[in-house]
Amino acid sequence: MNIDRFKHEHVSILESIATLRRLTQSGVATHAAQIAQGVVAMSSLIKLHLAVEDRVLYPALQNGSDAQLARLGQRFQQEMGAIANAYMAFARRWNTAEAVRGDEAGFKADANTVLRQVYERMQRENHDFYPRIEAMDAVAA
Question: Which of 32, 102, 117, 134 is the most exposed place for a label (fewest CB within 10 A)?
């Protein structure tokens, strides 16, 4: 299974998180519009990524020949539910410049918690999950 698309999407999402971090550190009020636009754009990336994972990646693993990888995929999919819900709530809360500017401290606290969860999850996928999928492909080839 070619997972290059998933890996590329991770790079894009991680770049979006880094951009939001830089903007926040440079001044939330000053960059509120860019921050809100970044949240909206990243939400589109994340929604697409999750949808393709749910429709393509996880079913392929469940139907594959590696039972251990199928269980790992199922665990990763279940864990992602809470993280995805937290991110979507974050995105709804901070998708306008007015919301961001109106509660700088709240935005920073929420971003630190939610974006860290997304970041850490993608790092786990990059280091623990995707290499296992690629190893399975290498053995099958």
Answer: 102
pTM, entire model: 0.92
67-107 pLDDT per residue, tens: 999 999 999 999 999 999 999 999 999 999 999 999 999 99
Question: What is the C-alpha to C-alpha distance for residues 37 and 101, in angstroms, rounded to an integer?
Answer: 13
Q: What is the pLDDT of residues 116-128, one digit of tens each?
A: 999 999 999 999 9
